[in-house]
Design goal:
The complex is a heterodimer of chains A (217) and B (442). In chain A, helix 2 (83-94) crosses helix 3 and helix 2 (83-94) packs parallel to helix 4 (124-135). Helices cover 34% and strands 29% of the residues of chain A. In chain A, strand 8 (190-195) and strand 9 (198-204) form a beta hairpin. Chain A contains seven helices and nine strands. By secondary structure, chain A is α/β, with parallel strands linked by helices. Chain B has helices at residues 2-16, 19-45, 70-77, 88-97, 110-116, 133-168, 183-193, 198-215, 217-225, 244-272, 275-279, 286-318, 330-355, 358-377, 384-391, 394-407, 412-441, and strands spanning 48-53, 60-63, 66-69, 82-85, 102-106, 124-127, 170-174, 177-181. Chain B folds into three domains: 2-42 and 240-441, no CATH class; 48-149, abc type-2 transporter like fold (3-Layer(aba) Sandwich); 161-221, no CATH class. Chain B contains 17 helices and eight strands. Chain B is of the alpha/beta class and 442 residues long. Chain B has a four-stranded mixed β-sheet, with helices on both faces. The chains are: A alpha/beta (217), B alpha/beta (442). At the A-B interface, helix 2 of A face helix 1 and helix 11 of B.
Chain lengths: 217, 442
């Protein structure tokens, strides 16, 4: 029996008259990887942000039974601070026991620059890697990634998928939003397809191709 | 509080790495404070007043045998206003348009009355209906009072000259008529030549008493002319620039400016950097974020406020200004500066949340801070509504807090009242800022 780590029930988000996400149910169980697919503006980032606790839903509830790491679509860190300083700062806020050691571990794991250069001066790829590294502070069991490989070279993409696979192998759960449908068969167990803020498909990754053409035109 | 401390340290580190921004944030409010101070000082101390001379006053006027350089006397006593000579028509036009706040007219016949002392000459004062009119009236009353003081000496001397004539006799002039007076001395001499009789003795007694009495006239005349004299020993008093009020206003203005801009920018930057979403995931609550930004404004405001207070004090000490700088009160002042920085910081966070991005937040803060400050500068009697609005903003309470902390003999009542105001305003704006941040994170 798989344990449910995250359960969202009827979560919705409205911006005035605009419905960004219609009431949606969503679950993540330990040991599974779910791909979130849909065209731009479908509500993928909104759903991930709500489940991550970064965005307040206008309806529904989210029950979280494990520590959650979140990689937002746009890198979210302080540009005037170095990669190390960002990692140490958020490690302190996360309550990590030894923030400098945790920062060193993640800098090495993601081959991030260790010098005091402001993170705003890093390459796009490095900033995205820092974004991913920040999500791993505190050893989360659930990882929510919003298009994590969009700005990465093949080597760095491989490194991110290694992180995902390690987490899944350890009984954790991963949900990633992507526009790169080639990643789905290899990395996802399940697919959730969103269109105009509504779930139009939810099922095994092998079966989602039937709606792909309809969704992406 | 741990999360607040972590975010505060982060913001201070970010600020330290932005030397240009930091420099601008520190220098800009000081420059604004100086400019506002100079403008306000000039405007309040030297209103422009039209001087209409219908009499064509000569440079020198003789009153009671004393010669007065009239223009010099007017210039000397009119230091509180700028007197500008104008024709009657020009003065009427400028008063109507508000270019001058008042007109002072020397009417025809003024000089004749002044020189002959037959009746009091009058100056005619006309003022506009603006907020400065009562102040200008007071200043003109002061000018006339001081002119009278100067002229009084001449009048008394002239009157005493007549007393001297009555006492000792001799040639004299009154309203252009010349005469030769016998005087009491001459009367006594003439009485001495008469054969003694009861009537002569009575007249001699009267003359003797009158001579003694009139000999005291000088002191009595001066005493009745000035029942109460105001003497002003020469001391090295504080100039307007070094006054207690300017010190309080200067610190309040710079701290308000700095705290508002800094907190607004720092709050909006969390959105710009995309970090507000990361922080709100149970790491830092919106309330803690408001506290952190208010604390940032408080800390940086305290550094700037302390620097200004110390520099001001050094200038006062070097200048040997009367009263000196109340160094012992500075710790109390610093408590107020920290409080004001935090309260204004809460207002700044609200602005930053409303603006949603740092550049707009800075612009909005600049647009808001000037009215906030100027509302606090409007005197109560000038525009009542401005006064009442300013009560619900922190600036006016900051000024009162700082002035009391620095110079009141017993500051605690004022400080207590103003602290309650500031805490109330801070809590209200803090709650609004918290709601604003929630909206910012959406």
């Amino acid at each position: 029996m798989t344990d449910t780590l995250v359960r969202a029930t009827g979560v919705a988000r409205r911006y005035g008259d605009v419905e960004a996400l219609a009431p949606t149910d969503f679950e993540l169980a330990g040991g599974e990887t779910v791909a979130l697919v849909g065209p731009n503006g479908a509500g993928k980032s909104t759903l991930l942000a709500i489940v991550a606790g970064a965005l307040e839903p206008t309806g529904g509830t989210v029950d979280v039974h494990a520590r959650v790491g979140w990689v937002p679509q746009r890198p979210a860190h302080y540009g005037r601070l170095s990669a190390r300083e960002n990692l140490e700062l958020f490690a302190r806020l996360e309550g990590v026991a030894d923030p400098p050691a945790e920062a060193t571990r993640l800098l090495e794991r993601f081959a991030l620059p260790t010098e005091a250069r402001p993170s705003a001066d890093l390459s796009v790829g490095n900033r995205q890697r820092l974004n991913v590294a920040l999500s791993l502070l505190g050893d989360p069991r659930v990882l929510l990634l919003d298009e994590p490989t969009a700005a990465l070279d093949p080597g760095q993409r491989r490194r991110v998928w290694e992180v995902v696979n390690d987490l899944r192998a350890g009984g954790g759960a991963v949900c990633f939003a992507t526009q790169n449908v080639e990643e789905i068969p290899e990395h996802a167990d399940r697919v959730l397809v969103l269109q105009d803020g509504r779930v139009v498909f939810s099922g095994p990754s092998s079966g989602w191709a039937s709606v792909a053409d309809e969704v992406f035109g | 509080m741990r999360a607040v401390g972590i975010v505060l340290r982060k913001d201070l580190r970010v600020l330290r790495r932005s030397p240009l921004l930091l420099g601008a944030l520190l220098v800009y409010p000081i420059v604004i404070a100086l400019l506002v101070g100079l403008t306000a000082g000039y405007a309040s101390s030297k209103p422009r007043v039209a001087f209409v001379d219908e009499e064509h006053l000569p440079a020198v006027v003789a009153v009671g045998g004393h010669k007065f350089h009239l223009q010099t006397v007017i210039d000397e006593v009119a230091k509180q206003v700028t007197l500008v000579r104008m024709s009657p028509a020009e003065a009427r036009r400028e008063l109507a348009s508000g270019k001058v706040v008042a007109t002072v007219t020397v009417p025809k016949g003024f000089l004749g009355n002044l020189e002959t002392m037959s009746q009091s000459p009058s100056l005619i004062l006309r003022t506009g209906s603006g907020g400065l009119a009562p102040r200008v009236t007071q200043q003109m009353q002061s000018l006339v009072y001081q002119l009278n003081q100067k002229l009084q000496a001449g009048y008394i001397a002239a009157n005493l000259e007549f007393v001297r004539l009555i006492l000792h006799g001799g040639p004299g002039t009154f309203v252009g008529r010349h005469f030769d007076l016998l005087g009491l001395d001459g009367t006594q001499r003439e009485l001495a030549k008469l054969p003694p009789s009861k009537r002569v003795r009575v007249i001699q007694h009267f003359v003797a008493v009158a001579r003694v009495g009139l000999a005291q006239t000088g002191a009595a005349l001066r005493a009745t002319a000035n029942p109460i004299a105001l003497t002003q020993p020469k001391t090295k008093g504080r100039t307007w620039v070094l006054s207690a009020q300017v010190q309080a206003y200067g610190i309040a203005l710079t701290v308000t400016f700095l705290a508002l801009l800094l907190a607004a920018g720092a709050a909006a930057a969390e959105k710009d950097e995309g970090t507000i979403g990361r922080l709100r995931r149970g790491l830092v609550s919106f309330g803690q974020l408001v506290w952190a930004k208010a604390a940032l404004a408080s800390v940086v405001g305290l550094v700037l406020g302390a620097a200004i207070a110390v520099v001001f004090g050094i200038v006062v000490e070097i200048g040997g200004v009367t009263g000196g700088e109340p160094w012992g009160r500075l710790p109390l002042l610093f408590v107020g500066v920290a409080l004001v920085g935090a309260v204004v910081g809460a207002v700044g966070v609200l602005l930053g949340a409303l603006a949603r991005e740092a550049r707009s937040a800075s612009l909005l803060a600049v647009l808001v801070v000037l009215p906030v400050i100027f509302l606090g500068l409007v005197p109560r009697g000038a525009v009542g509504a401005a006064y009442w609005i300013s009560l619900f903003l922190p600036f006016v309470h900051a000024v009162r807090w700082f002035a009391a902390a620095l110079y009141d003999t017993d500051p605690w009542r004022t400080i207590g009242i103003e602290t309650l105001w500031l805490v109330g305003i801070g809590l209200a704006f803090g709650l609004l800022a918290r709601l604003g941040l929630r909206r910012l994170a959406a």
